[in-house]
Request: fold
Amino acid sequence: MDTDPGSSSRRRWLLHSLQASFAATVAAICYPVLRFLRPRPATVSGAMEVVAPFRVNQLPNAPGNPFNFGGKPCLVVLTPEGEKRLARGERLQPGDIRAFNAICTHMDCTVHYRPDHGDIFCSCHNGVYDLNGHNVSGPPPRPLETYKVTLRGSPGQEEIVVSRTS
Ligand code: FES
Reply:
């Protein structure tokens, strides 16, 4: 039988220390997992209307795409249908060129267009969006914000005017 009062208080102190370090370990494991899974609030651009720093005939691999749209990156996509029309020298149709807030809705990485896959890709955690901006696989919890596109100028060399829809 232990009659030393100091030994009992040491045992209590040791037990509290073990409990505290266990709680800290659980928190250190859970916090990044919860942060990874938790949907983030939308990151919205402050701009209303911006002319892209490239023209239609420079797409799909225009330098400077995504470009700065009121402090947020804006990605302009020439759809495969639009690319065919452009190659045939035809006038583009509404929807052939699309624009999106290029910030991934998962954890704010910048997304890119992958013409070879026909999708929009986030390389941070392999998030995939379709060409309507809908999240189709991987962790992104929401679609990309879409912008309105207006073309100005002579066919094939139009300026691309991007504006917010709301
Ligand atoms: S930031 Fe995680 S998939 Fe884009």
Residues 1-38 form one domain.
